[in-house]
Task: structure prediction
Amino acid sequence: MTEHVRIENNGGILTLTLARPDKKNALTDAMYGKLADAIESAEFDPSARVILIRGEGDMFTAGNDVGEFAAVAAGKSEGSRNVVRFIQSLARCTRPLVAAVQGRAVGVGTTMLLHCDLVVLADDAQLSTPFVSLALVPEAASSLLMPARIGYARAYEMFALGETVPAKSALEWGLANRVVPLDKLEAEALALAQRLARQPAGALIATKRLMRNGEALVAQMQAEGEQFAQRLRTAEAREAFTAFAERRPPDFTKVA
Result:
């Protein structure tokens, strides 16, 4: 349902709010589509000088809606294509991206932060990328960006073991710009977005283009996407999602 993403444009700041708190802001195909539409449209809207991404409730996002993954693994769905549009829109976005993150940021909830230019974490934030635990592979060019940002050893542990990274460590490792008390999160992120909105837009765009090669990131996303789609249809993935639905630990040792 597209009402699960709220869009507001005030004072040069386009705010995208994940508004599905009853489902931990888990992202559906429709939500990805609305997010992608907003980010792509901002490229042609001079009033959208900065994009701020936030989540409603006590969690930024639980990541992709597991039910949609499970349907693909069971052969009942072809899967979402809007997620591809969304992550590619992040890679190609020339506007400054600011994220305000509270509680858990799981999977794409963490990998999208690698495309944000300023990331503010609440002190209760926890980042995790449990792709391998779901018999999948990293996405959103995170297989390239995460080792570059935090080093191979830390990135491998996050991916292969699904280790959760608390806010303090995320800041120390370079995954965030600020860690603030939860009750200060919105104000801090908004203040940074407002400062960016007052900067010369052309200079910001040119600087970001010099610092990031969007098309190289899209190429990495495409390579990841091929592996991701293949893995999603494996026996390992079916076991992972069946175990999730049955609230039990998966047993991959019995999967051929």
About this structure: The mean pLDDT is 95. The two ends are 37 Å apart (CA to CA). The CA atoms of residues 22 and 256 lie 37 Å apart. The longest helix spans residues 214-232.
